[in-house]
Amino acid sequence: MRHNLSSHKMSDGRHSVEVAVDMASSDGNLFRDRVRERDLDNFLVEELQASQTFLAWFLSRLDGKISWPPAAAVRLRKSPPRGDGRQTDVELGWFMDDALVACVLIESKVTADFQPGQAEAYAQETSRLRQIMGPDAVCCVLVAPRDRIASLNHSAHFDAAIALEDIAQTLIDRRVRVVEDAEIDGRLSVRIDLLEALAGKRARQGWTPVTVAEKRNFAEAYAALAKIVCSDLTVRPSTDGPKAVTRFFAGLPVDPTFPCRVALKHEFGRGVPVKHANLQFTGMAGQAAALRDARDLFEGEPYTIVAGPSALFVRHATPGLDPEGLGFEAQREKVVEGLRAIDGLFMWFVRHQAQLATILGRSPPKRASPSSLNTSAAGVTEDDLDRALRDLAEQSRVVFNYIPHYFLEMLQRSGALATAKTLLAGQVSDGFVALWKKGGLAVTVEALVVEEPWRSSGLFTVEEIGRAERRLRDSGYRRP
Questions:
Q1: pTM flag (> 0.90)
Q2: Which of 49, 92, 302, 450 can bridge 104 by disulfide, Cβ–Cβ 3.0-4.6 Å?
Q3: Alpha carbons 95 and 72: distance in angstroms, whole number
Q4: Between these two residues, 355 and 428, which has the higher pLDDT value?
């Protein structure tokens, strides 16, 4: 099997040289069976400390089992000592004035079983810390391959369990959703390889491969042909596992102010005659009617508009492909047809990006509901709230150089009132933390709802307003 080579430019200020870096071993994984449990510990420390996106995802998997002051500083510690003489693999802690005020105790397992009393000791340490910091300020989590979580005795002593396969998938999803620069994309690829190697290890057994060889061979030939047909695009790497039946493309020149994430993908299918090349607009399903009304965009084009549960798709029908059974050469013409459809969607998006941004950035039509039809006690409606929230997002972009993509997607998908209530009901959002770091709490939902006319509008409960006030107060925010 060929190596996956990635080109990087190195410069000393006078000369520039392009270096090919080997990004995969001959068996398709950098790590194979050369991984240990400490590699998982190091991965968790680095990702939780360095990536706000990963930290937010990790905490979302704890399902409300932990809370912390928003203004507290996050610190990671590997193998910190405990009062019972044992060690925690990784401690995710929140500190105020160097005092630990909340924490997650993380135990990682790959092949080993629990030591005698180890799981029970985690539960006891969690209970002890809760007596000091509060019942919602501490929890303990098991991180392991999915089959190990199911087979480990005493895993019930942990508040939550997170599978390595789910961690790998969220990194894969990030590569799909977000167009990163080459270095970050390469680092994510290596981390995915590490997690798959850890998840593939079995006690007293060798490496269990994730990649399907036939799919890997097909993928390499597909990527080589794509360089010719779609010269402005690059095929994103894939695990080429049993479920890999779609190829995503990098290189779509999406303006940073575009109102949603955009993905370009080619669906192969599973032995079906017809699949699709797709432009995917995340969170824009509610704008399907508005896009269909823009008939000038689609005149003479072979595209259809399809609204999914959340995303909006512009599709071009293509022949279905079988990356496992039929081989690449037997399907070359079908591949070429699909790649030409991808290239066509690419050029169509480039031509019409400005008009698409205008259409998709509009407020979607509201369905009749009490909150939108009736005027509140303060004389404001959900339509007024929608405009106010979008104004916050625009101030966030212009003043603080922060584009709240998820927030805007929620507005498109769920509407203004549901979005605000969701953000007030859950844990502190990633956007709140990001704006706190930039000194931008004045443009958060919390800061909006505690002021008039929203405070007395009747749209928000006393509990929701109180929760917003506590978050702002704990974060050091002073109302104007």
A1: no
A2: 92
A3: 5
A4: 355
